[in-house]
Write a structure and sequence with these properties.
This protein is mainly β. 0% of the residues lie in helices and 45% in strands.
Amino acid sequence: MAVIEGGASAALTDVGANTKAARIEIRPTDVGSLGSYSMATLSGTMAAGLGAGSTIYSIRWGDATRAMLLRRLSMVARNAGTAFAAGVFNFELVVARSFTASDTGGTNLTPTGNSQKRRTSFGTTLITDIRTSSTATLTAGTRTLDVQTHNLIRGMVPATAVNYPFVGKGVGNLPGASINAFSLDWQDLFSTDVSNEWPLVFVQNEGCIIRATVPATGTWEFGVLVEWSEVPTTAGFN
């Protein structure tokens, strides 16, 4: 059996005699004195007639010496009682660069204190701004959006039927069913598949938005789940 000695710690790594494979322990990203966080939120009832490509969720990172690693951004949505005109919908994840002034309006979700930590001893998040629409579009701050989306969720909704899910994974009833109770799992706009896959890395004045295009007349509500870590810019993601 061969051994490998660590250059910094002098610790030995065993390699199996038969398989010659190193014995590796998979661990979370080393966040040092920073931390890892998650948060799920719901909007209010979105008013009918939302303009095409409206910003409904926004994340801005403004710290100059640390980075934000977006691990997951997922959503659900449902009709909220007033029927849509039949048509298609889009929910798009778009990265924002040169994001020097936060979006405004809606509900500010930026955590404080111990809120949203995955471990109490983590530092309070350094995120600059997270916000969601309450009933209408957010007002854009100063930012330059990527020309193309990083991901999107696209589908169709019917006319007449109400109170049904249209974004999400799980158990649901078809529009027009006599029983409209349902339960949905989150549908990912972004999620890393394996431990060594790159997350979305945001450095100073970067971030992302979710923008929505839905058919006319309908009222609806949505939820967003976000998971992220914060690391020094020297932590291998620079």
